[in-house]
Amino acid sequence: MLEALNLGIPTAPDDFRSGFVGIVGRPNVGKSTLMNGLVGQKVAIVSPIAQTTRNRLRGILTRDDAQIVFVDTPGIHKPHHELGKVLVANARMAIHSADLLLFVVDGSVEAGGGDRFVAEWLAQAPVPVVLGLNKIDLQTDPTVEESYAALAADRGWPIVRFSALQGEGTEDLLQALIDRLPPGPFYYPPELVTDRPERFIMGELIREQILLHARDEIPHSVAVEIDRVEETPKITRVLATIHIERASQKAILIGKGGSMLKAIGTAAREQIQKLIDGKVYLELYVKLQPKWRRSPARLADLGYRIEED
Fold it and tell me: What are phi and psi of 217, to 5 degrees?
């Protein structure tokens, strides 16, 4: 585990609990929505598109009795290109560097082969596992839970039911996690909610709006690079490049008369203003980068690399 950072962090009381909780599961089961809800602030982007999360992202919750460092991970899936391999490798790294694992599943549908694959993977982990049954607000067939109950019983995992979107059951989930964390120090200052820099979050907020506005036309062959951030007392100017793989995608992203790019920029600017609590000028460029997801060097340039602890 990380040593407590020497940043004026207070000394924890004797009964204080802390640790790193890896949030793992298949794509699109609500991991990022859950972390945002538990932390109480948007630190991870969300969309209906599977594999939205690409980087390990830490969300930090500090209470009087505990500090939980949630590690949101890319959804575990079969990779089809170099980017996919990096994402799965980072999810594996998170599993081996956590104090506790939260296995999030979609509780509105029965356990499938993908869930069983992840379960077998987690069964080898040297730390406790809690199975989180998400989306109970969408559950229409109570017997669905039986498939997860059997999966958990075979491995001795406790089950907690909740809805990340509605907030139902999340307090019970938090308590279940804290009860299984070891006594420990503050790892981060109590006021911190993530360890990622603002530039990273800005890029993710732009990518989120691309997925939301052009999700039927633009798959995951898009990356965002923050080129420059200029801060003045009155406004923050952000220049960013959107990288795509095909010329047809560039035309779609720009849209007729620049309409699509304008809509993406307006929505992203509103989100960035919430992040920095100030006025933002956002300028977006679209650049063609053929097969960037298959190039290890280009992936590294764009910030996609296996993250060592």
Answer: -105, -30
Integer Rg of the chain from CA: 20
| Three-state DSSP class for residue 75 | coil
CA distance 226 to 282: 10
Task: Give the integer Cα–Cα distance in Å for 302 and 138.
Answer: 37
Residue 264 and residue 198: Cα distance in Å, rounded?
A: 19
The single-letter DSSP state of residue 108 is: T
Reported as a single tens digit per residue, the pLDDT across 126-165 is 899 999 999 999 988 878 899 999 989 989 999 999 999 9
- Cα distances from 172 to residues 132, 137, 142, in angstroms, run 11, 16, 20
pLDDT at 222: 86
C-beta separation of 221 from 245 below 8 A: yes
Is the distance from CB of 268 to CB of 206 less than 8 angstroms? yes
Cβ atoms of residues 270 and 250 within 8 Å: no
Burial class (CB in 10 A: 0-12, 13-18, 19+), 84: middle
Rounded distance between C-alpha atoms, residue 198 and residue 206, angstroms: 12
Q: Is 46 exposed, middle or buried (CB count within 10 Å of its CB: 0-12, 13-18, 19+)? A: buried
How far, in Å, CA of 107 to CA of 29, rounded?
Answer: 9
Taking the C-alpha atoms of residue 84 and residue 222, their distance in angstroms, rounded to an integer, is: 13
Instruction: Tell me the whole-structure pTM to 2 decimals.
Output: 0.76
Q: Tally Cβ neighbours within 10 Å of residue 230.
A: 10
DSSP reduced 3-state for 122? helix
Asked if 87 and 303 touch (Cβ cutoff 8 Å), the reply is no
**What is the 8-class DSSP label of residue 139?**
-
Find the mean pLDDT for residues 80-85. Answer: 57
